[in-house]
């Protein structure tokens, strides 16, 4: 019998690959979120203007701080909305995932 | 991301994965900076070489992006720490 998964005998040297995969997915999600946030806030606060120098001026710095806070807020709100829609859809017995490309599988 | 319930084999595995991802992330960032700064700075194609103005622009652009990325990272880390302690 394989020692991966199966019995949970708390073997200190076993690697739980499901746990690994979840952790990697989470890592990927956070990295993607961060990269999008950097890109969006650059567009909103610094813009594609010809850079006068290599430093961020006060206005840009303050804008970036606010942008990060707002971006995180939006992420929270969207997450809540999606969760509540999912819960409502489940309660009313609608087909789960019917709004995505994989809904008809 | 809580890695405290990982045993030592899992932590070692995770560390390798994180290192690989950090390298890939760095390469992606490099490509992004090149594209962004090229778009911002290089608009005159009458010459093959970069003019000194374009050269300075690229240097400033790169510096600006890196500082910006650093600042976003710092604020994000603060936000996460705040969320974790709630």
UniProtKB/TrEMBL annotation, chain A:
Residues 20-84 form the Tim10-like domain. Transmembrane segments: none annotated. One of its GO terms (cellular component) is mitochondrial inner membrane. One of its GO terms (molecular function) is metal ion binding. Pfam families: zf-Tim10_DDP. It is a peripheral membrane protein. Residues 85-105 are annotated as: Disordered. It is found in: Mitochondrion inner membrane. The keyword Glycoprotein does not apply. Its main location: mitochondrion. It comes from the Eukaryota. Keywords: Chaperone, Disulfide bond, Membrane, Metal-binding, Mitochondrion, Mitochondrion inner membrane, Protein transport, Translocation, Transport, Zinc. One of its GO terms (biological process) is protein insertion into mitochondrial inner membrane. InterPro entries: Tim10-like, Tim10-like_dom_sf. The twin CX3C motif contains 4 conserved Cys residues that form 2 disulfide bonds in the mitochondrial intermembrane space. Heterohexamer. Mitochondrial intermembrane chaperone that participates in the import and insertion of some multi-pass transmembrane proteins into the mitochondrial inner membrane. Also required for the transfer of beta-barrel precursors from the TOM complex to the sorting and assembly machinery (SAM complex) of the outer membrane. Acts as a chaperone-like protein that protects the hydrophobic precursors from aggregation and guide them through the mitochondrial intermembrane space. Belongs to the small Tim family. This is Mitochondrial import inner membrane translocase subunit. It comes from Coprinellus micaceus (Glistening ink-cap mushroom).
Automatic annotation (TrEMBL), chain B:
Residues 17-78 form the Tim10-like domain. It comes from the Eukaryota. The keyword Metal-binding applies. Its main location: mitochondrion. Heterohexamer. It is a peripheral membrane protein. It holds the Pfam family zf-Tim10_DDP. One of its GO terms (molecular function) is metal ion binding. It comes from Coprinellus micaceus. GO terms for cellular component: mitochondrial inner membrane. Keywords: Chaperone, Disulfide bond, Membrane, Metal-binding, Mitochondrion, Mitochondrion inner membrane, Protein transport, Translocation, Transport, Zinc. InterPro entries: Mito_inner_translocase_sub, Tim10-like, Tim10-like_dom_sf. It is found in: Mitochondrion inner membrane. This is Mitochondrial import inner membrane translocase subunit. Belongs to the small Tim family. The twin CX3C motif contains 4 conserved Cys residues that form 2 disulfide bonds in the mitochondrial intermembrane space. SUPFAM superfamilies: Tim10-like (SSF144122). Mitochondrial intermembrane chaperone that participates in the import and insertion of some multi-pass transmembrane proteins into the mitochondrial inner membrane. Also required for the transfer of beta-barrel precursors from the TOM complex to the sorting and assembly machinery (SAM complex) of the outer membrane. Acts as a chaperone-like protein that protects the hydrophobic precursors from aggregation and guide them through the mitochondrial intermembrane space. One of its GO terms (biological process) is protein transport.
